[in-house]
Amino acid sequence: MSAEVETNTTMRAIVQRVSRASVTVGEEQISSIGRGLCVLLGVSSEDTQRDADYMVRKILNLRVFEDPSGRSWSQSVMDRDLEVLCVSQFTLQCVLKGNKPDFHLAMPAASAQPFYNAMLDAMRSAYRAERIKDGKFGAYMQLHIQNDGPVTIELTSPCGSSDPRQMSKQRKEKTRSHSGRETDAPGSPQDPNASSRVDGGVSSERKL
């Protein structure tokens, strides 16, 4: 695997400050929040607990809200006691082959679901459980997002060293880590059509 591809194997999140957001499956609205954060999260095949811990910490402490005096970029969702809506989105791990999306960097569904659920549990433990909402893993979802600002921030978990020997060592360590959680080893083949991750559309409304 080339160094260029290695730099892409990292957890990715699109974090939007929202006035409100909701998730609908079929005709049923399964989750909704008022002001807070909407987080689209893409887990890669090589992510470990270290990546998850980093992302949880960053999401909850990201200072994108104003303080009571109106000073911008000074408080986090936890400071303001606001809500977070998380949605698993493997398409964030997309690599284009020509014009066709390829998702081989995404964690296989059988491993991604417990990994993602554990991240939600960690977020609830670090904050307040009732403030963390979720979509429906594997369902075809419609997201209704009213971006507040607009404010949209991309987060990635830290990449490893660019030294080939260090990268080889990190791959082995991550493989052992996944094996310890009884998950599929990194790079396992997957059928995107059989994936249990969300691939629903996202509609956004901009607050003027």
Outline the structure in words.
The chain is an alpha/beta fold. The protein has one domain: D-tyrosyl-trna(Tyr) Deacylase, Chain: A, CATH 3.50.80.10. It has helices at 3-6, 49-61, 109-126, 164-180, and strands spanning 12-25, 28-33, 36-42, 83-88, 95-97, 100-102, 132-134, 141-156, 202-206. α2 (49-61) packs across α3 (109-126). Residues 152-208 are annotated as: Disordered. One of its GO terms (cellular component) is cytoplasm.
Quick take:
This protein is an alpha/beta fold and 208 residues long.
Structural descriptors:
208 residues; alpha/beta; D-tyrosyl-trna(Tyr) Deacylase, Chain: A; seven-stranded mixed sheet; two-stranded antiparallel sheet; 4 helices; 9 strands; 30% strand; globular; disordered N terminus; disordered C terminus; DTD-like_sf; tRNA binding; EC 3.1.1.96; tRNA-binding
General form: globular
- The gyration radius over C-alpha positions equals 17 Å
Q: How far from one another are the termini?
A: 45 Å
What's the average pLDDT?
80
CATH class: Alpha Beta
| Proportion in helices | 25-40%
Stated plainly, the CATH topology is called D-tyrosyl-trna(Tyr) Deacylase, Chain: A
Number of helices: 4
Count of DSSP E strands?
9
GO molecular function, one term: D-tyrosyl-tRNA(Tyr) deacylase activity
Protein name: D-aminoacyl-tRNA deacylase
Enzyme class: hydrolase
Catalytic activity: glycyl-tRNA(Ala) + H2O = tRNA(Ala) + glycine + H(+); a D-aminoacyl-tRNA + H2O = a tRNA + a D-alpha-amino acid + H(+)
